[in-house]
Here is the input.
Amino acid sequence: MAIKVSKPTGNARRQLSFVKFDVDKEKPEKSLTYGKIRISGRNNYGRITVRNRGGGSKRLYREVDFSQLSAANKSAKVLSVQYDPNRSAHIALVQYEDGQKSYVLAPEKLKSGMSIVCSEKAAVRVGNRMKLKSIPPSSEVHNVELTGQYGGQIARSAGSKATLLGIDGKYAQIRLPSGEVRKVSCECYASIGNVSNQDHSKEVIGKAGRKRSFGRRPHVRGKAKNPVDHPHGGGEGATSIGMPHPKTPWGMPALGHKTRGKKKKSSKLILQKRK
Here is the structure.
């Protein structure tokens, strides 16, 4: 993959760039796709809880198997590596020995025709999935489980990876992409390698219209609003926000304020906080 810069045919496209995907140009597997209902930032009551969401291109949702335990100990052949509009990473269509097909997260360097397996103990090879206690220290892993039999929950976005630092009793110590070091049960599963599409973070959106196609609506700065609408609002011209620290529209501290619950049970498993 490589970053391709568009021709400066106008001011809107002057800085625009996109990733030239190295994927197989095949249609998604029909049995593993279904229509995705847009919620546009609304909760089950229909109230907007996440602002600046809505619109965007239509998408088919690909059902990705983050656990792979339903076909444990069965070898799977990679049929194709495909683009997924619902996530930053690529996905791989695999077929197991019994003919069952499934989508899994595609790690870097996984190609069509290769074989992968999910087992308690397997060869340390890109795409294979096994328990943390079976993985040698200093290995790069992704799609790591936090709770057994629950499926991978962390290190799933494009280019992300976690590093297995070592085994300490019934826990494995892993360094997450954020820099946080935490303990995870040795019985949890993880996949070998780092997630595909590493150049995703280097893309330059370039114009507002392209952001709208992603389902993002315009975001207005608090400083540009009236005082009745935002704590930062008001003032003549380009004045400052008028307070020592920024706030949310509802008056809560923003930028640096810690929101993690102090009584969270999993806090005792965190050995080093994220940077």
Remarks:
- The CA atoms of residues 61 and 195 lie 19 Å apart.
- Residues 2-200 form a domain with the OB fold (Dihydrolipoamide Acetyltransferase, E2P) fold (CATH 2.40.50.140).
- The longest helix spans residues 208-213.
